[in-house]
Write a structure and sequence with these properties.
It is built from seven helices and 13 strands. By secondary structure, the chain is of the alpha+beta class. It is globular and about 45 Å long. Keywords: Glutamine amidotransferase, Hydrolase.
Length: 250
């Protein structure tokens, strides 16, 4: 199932975004509240986690910290999250799709230059997806995939579209449309940021956003103690910066 979050705004400690809030991403790893429609019960997201952030002030990044263990099992994370600050973050906790690899390279976020990419969902028979969508990957694209997983494959499909100059929202929407044509039961919540803008799709799993003052947060599930959360309709594309938020049908 996975759960993910992206934030743009004033630099904050990672702990304030990922571990401290009520029903934080940390808590969603073992107690998610919004199960997919196809699932009978919530899934524990214990197959790894990852955090990507852009260091403030110098234009560097993104920097990633990824592990193949549950987020609650990493004894280093509380100390790191307390001292690392950023105004642009993408993080995820993972529940692996059957047949995918389990090393830390399979944990989002994946990197495409300055872009960070995450997938919340699952694609049945993902290994056959390129052939079934008439979109065979080149040897270079296959070798460039960070992991053997549906999420890494979707990232490679998105990269192909960005490489020929397609706008981010259009690229994500096209990947969702082509994938669901071949795999109608696929769940495809895609999330990307370059540290300046966020793009996200909702297709099958929950997605929320909170735009207040000069910050925007997009997350699989809202923090109940923070006012202003709004649910993104299913089958929608969200495009956001710290100043604007747009939602349109996929």
């Amino acid at each position: 199932m996975c759960r993910h979050l992206a934030y743009l705004g004033p630099p904050r400690p990672l702990a304030e975004l990922l571990t401290d809030p009520a029903h934080s991403l940390y808590e969603q790893s073992y107690a998610p509240a919004h199960a997919p429609q196809q699932a009978e019960a919530p899934t524990v997201n214990a197959d790894g986690f990852g955090i990507g952030w852009y260091p403030p002030g110098n234009g560097a990044g993104p920097v990633r910290y990824r592990r193949s263990v549950p987020i609650w099992a990493d004894a280093n994370l509380p100390g790191l999250a307390a001292v690392i600050h950023s105004g642009a973050v993408l993080a995820a906790v993972r529940a692996a799709t059957p047949g995918t690899s389990h090393d830390e390279a399979a944990s989002a976020p994946f990197a495409l230059g300055r872009w960070l990419f995450s997938h919340n969902g699952s694609v049945p028979r993902w290994e056959l997806l390129p052939a079934d969508t008439d979109e065979p990957l080149t040897a270079a694209e296959l070798l460039g995939m960070e992991a053997r997983s549906d999420s890494a494959l979707l990232c490679a499909m998105t990269a192909r579209r960005l490489a020929v100059g397609r706008p981010l929202g259009e690229a994500l929407a096209d990947v969702v449309r082509r994938t669901t044509t071949a795999r109608p039961t696929a769940r495809l919540n895609l999330l990307m940021t370059d540290g300046h803008a966020i793009a996200a799709t909702r297709h099958g799993n929950s997605l929320w956003y909170r735009a207040v003052s000069d910050e925007i947060t997009v997350a699989s599930e809202p923090a109940p103690d923070e006012p202003g959360w709004r649910e993104v309709p299913d089958h929608s594309l969200l495009l956001a910066t710290t100043r604007t938020t747009e939602i349109e049908p996929l």
